[in-house]
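Summary for the steering committee. The consortium agreed at its last meeting that each partner would contribute one worked example illustrating the joint modelling workflow. Our contribution is presented below. We chose a case with several input lines so that the handling of multiple components could be demonstrated. No manual editing was applied between input and output; the record is shown as generated.
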Amino acid sequence: MKKQILTFLIISILLFLGNFIVPAMMNPYLFMILIYCGINIIMGVSLNIINGITGQFSIGHAGFMAVGGYVSAAISFYVLMPLLSLFPSDNTILSLFFQNALFVASLLLGGLGAALFGYLVGLPSLHLRGDYLGIVTLGFGEIIRVIILNLDFIGGARGFTGIPAWSNFFWIYFFAVAVVMVSFRLLGSSHGRALLSIREDEIAAESIGIPITRYKVKAFVLSSFFAGIAGGLFAHFIGYLNPSSFTFIKSFEAIIIVVLGGMGSISGAIVAAVITTILPEALRPLQEFTRTDFRMVIYPLLLLTLMLTRPQGLFGNKELSDVLPFLKRKKSP
Amino acid sequence: MSTLDQRSLLETISLTMRFAGLVAVSNFNLQLQKNELVGLIGPNGAGKTTVFNMLTGVYRPSDGKMILDDKPLNDLKPHNITRLGMARTFQNIRLFKDLSVLDNVRLGHHIHFNYGLLATALQTKHFYKEEASTQEHSLELLKIFDLEKYQDLQAKNLPYGAQRKLEILRALATRPKILLLDEPAAGLNHKETEELMQTIQKLRQDFDLTILLIEHDMKLVMGICERILVLDHGETIAQGKPKEIQSNPIVIKAYLGDGGGEAQT
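What follows is the complete predicted structure of the assembly.
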């Protein structure tokens, strides 16, 4: 336990220092890419819990991100900002601390909102298998988007403006690290093994006493909670939300991350999230050269080549610690 | 039913399974006493595996009752039945192929661990304690079949015979009262079958098990079963001691046919 608190402190301090050093080190464009990497890591690793570990096919992850984003944005905008304005904003450490604490609360509430939707979608639809479940989740994602489009108090089609920009490097990577760690720990626990067994063989899983529906719902709830947090971080970083950010294309980006990284591999999802975020941007200079936007031709071609040469994804179902054994942690408290 | 002097551990009363007009099993009556080793035999398609599927909740019986330890099983889901103390293996091995041998057995312990998602995320002392005891117990089980040297291997890479054994261990890890074995010797060679016979006997004693097994290998069935039920076309055509079954004309007819056309496998 002591070791855990120590690790927590070290990571927090490093991120806290990074929060000041990193933006100063690079131009805002590169910094933006870095931020998107963090958000996409959360999206990829969280979707990996459903698609990779539990073996269910969900293509509505953007829907959960949207719920989380809008819920936390609305809470910050309508509740927390008026609350904060009651106190003098003097930028003292105390008021900054207060603001960040409220921000985390708003993020967690956004995550809970998304988790609630994960539960609502999960419960009736998890008797479905494979493609059928995929279509239900796809439909769900679109329903969420259309509902948001028609809700005026959160901006509707115009988009939600005026969200406080409380998000920063520290919080985005803090949550990215947290989501990754929880995922790894889940995988090393009986809960995680139960999820894996569902992917492997549902009938056998039931025969050894694993309530498969309950575990599928658990996977959905946990995964959508994380996606909701990603949404909240995104909303508070940009300061603006638009329903068109959460189309099914966003869901597919998350699926690409999981498949590219290798189904079930957390390290794979992290690496793939970074690659899929950086690659389209890295190809941008090419545009000056060719005078036409070949980016969206080359990027899919690269993905295609990769999937053809390595159908199991970058990492297969291996983790980084399988390749580099010194990363393996000892199994003791 | 409590009309018997000795209360049976598992009892089925006129269990029937119909699939849209086809009667797969009809009027199946079985009383398993504690610690018994009973064989269920019959020609292909006689309904043996259907009986297993009903007992473990995969199929819901169309008629009849199943009672385990005074608890009715009819409306329970497979995972609930496992919790009541019934575990099974499958005719065509159903291991978690991509998981390690150790994980397969550890998953068998699933119903006995207790820590929540929060304990998992925080890796509390309790979490480590439970995981350690699960691991210890799993390794002990693996030692029964000398599989502990393969613990980190993916289950699909095990030799066929070892896969069968691993499946039995996974079922044992749930700590069942009744173990249902669906053709445990299928695909095993002579020597392996012999070994299996001894191991089944030993498991029954060491774990205080009641075993019901389906098997085509007559040597195994006649060798270790105390009682045998014979199914044909869903009907129970005979039951009794191995000796009686061997010489029962109805059984011989079911297996060999009237004029002795088909050969017995």
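The interface with chain A takes residues 56-58, 77-79, 82-83, 87-88, 90, 94-99, 103, 106-111, 113, 115, 117, 120-125, 127-128, 130-132, 134, 170-171, 173-174 of chain B (CB under 8 Å). The first strand of chain B starts at residue 10 and ends at 19.
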